[in-house]
């Protein structure tokens, strides 16, 4: 009887722990309890029985049921190649080693072995075999890698042979990485970094992804979460014990100041002008201007190929012409657009409408102008912002798009209308365009006969003078363009790590909101306030996966390929 009661207590302790954790970590916890609590071993024949019993009575995520499967997949790319890597992970991995390559090899050392079909004993291939016993492996489980010759017949024979082994099944997309997460080998930000590294197309993207995979964001977010948890513990201690007077003096003052510090740090991290996200997703650069000024010629010169049609007929470009480029290691989506002018042509009108919409979402706008404008303008009377504002508003007015979009600059703020801005995808009022995201390019300088040095002395940082025909000034323009792109994306290998995903931004914004509410509530009710601390810490936990829901995990792992 006592024995039964004890078993019940122990088991309910297990259940209590399990409920505190996410489904995924529960499996590890459950098996840990089984090995460390001898009493559970007398109740259940093995871990699987305990797990099945628990699933029957309490229910766990479907993934838990697969925890004992051994998974396999082709981890290298498909198609003919010199070497293909087939990866196996799970409790039965050693069975594959024994049945297919004559037994286990020395851990983490490549061995040349004959691979055999486990049923017919027929040779399939000669392969390099590597054995990674858990828990010191990528997934935390036993892993084997077969580096086979990369012909389709070899690959399919090895995969079919593995499929005949009991408890083996093909891996789902991202399942190896998911297993690494479940076994606490990587947190969610590191996994997202790994995903970005696989998809990185440029040097800067690779650097940013590698840093994230190394855990910089995990360290940052976990440290905020730990500090908040400490604040929560102190607030709870104050609520529970302050009347007994055995609590540290000024404990709440310390909490208030620490919460303010954390809130400022998270806000500063959020307020990064989307550098990391821009670098991850690619920077939108749009070329705008009047017809026939050389916008398509500039796009072709930058992309070094005739991507857009160039002709002396004004209004040749009618739609948005996009080209994806790698500029100095940064990913850029460069768009040529229809020239902005008054027109009755319905198709051209639609093209102009698209040009204006593309400008709204662009991170950097290159406005191409004819050099005659310089002669007609008294630059000495104008700021850069005033010039851009009046020029663009004049173009928009002419092209009939003024109603939906209008520039305003800090110095002519009496113009209280809408504007183009990458930060705001919909028109907004009372705000000003960020002039650092605008580059003026005076093209066709080969047609200028006057003294150039006098003409070209204005707004040096944001103005370029070039000729797409002769190539004059093009190198200087590219230097300015690269500098602008670097400013917008930042250097991914130095400084504090950048926020890279909309998912992170969402949770961090909510974290700041809860910390603000903590400040509000703390004046009236410390119990309500402490709940806000718990919610703020939860938001941070969701970024790293310390608190996760199946939905979030499925979205993250869905983007991984099979075999990763
Ligand atoms: N002299 C000279 N002509 C140029 C230069 N750049 C472009 N052109 C010419 O200007 C004409 C228009 O060039 P595009 O690149 O098609 O101009 P666009 O701004 O795209 O024109 P739309 O499609 O009408 O909007 C073509 O005949 C080009 O060869 C330049 O630097 N110097």
TrEMBL record:
Subcellular location: Mitochondrion
Domain G: 284-375
One record GO biological process: tRNA methylation
Coiled-coil spans in chain: none
Signal peptide: none
Keyword GTP-binding included in the entry's annotation: yes
MnmE helical domain: residues covered: 188-561
Family annotation (SUPFAM superfamilies): P-loop containing nucleoside triphosphate hydrolases, TrmE connector domain
InterPro entries according to UniProt: G_TrmE, GTP-bd, GTP-bd_TrmE_N, GTPase_MnmE, MnmE_dom2, MnmE_helical, P-loop_NTPase, Small_GTP-bd
GO molecular function: GTP binding; GTPase activity
Keywords (A to Z) from UniProt: GTP-binding, Nucleotide-binding, tRNA processing
One Pfam short name: TrmE_N
Span of domain GTP-binding protein TrmE N-terminal: 70-185
A GO cellular-component term linked to this record: mitochondrion
Family: Belongs to the TRAFAC class TrmE-Era-EngA-EngB-Septin-like GTPase superfamily. TrmE GTPase family.
Name this polypeptide is given: tRNA modification GTPase GTPBP3, mitochondrial-like isoform X1
Gene: LOC106071535
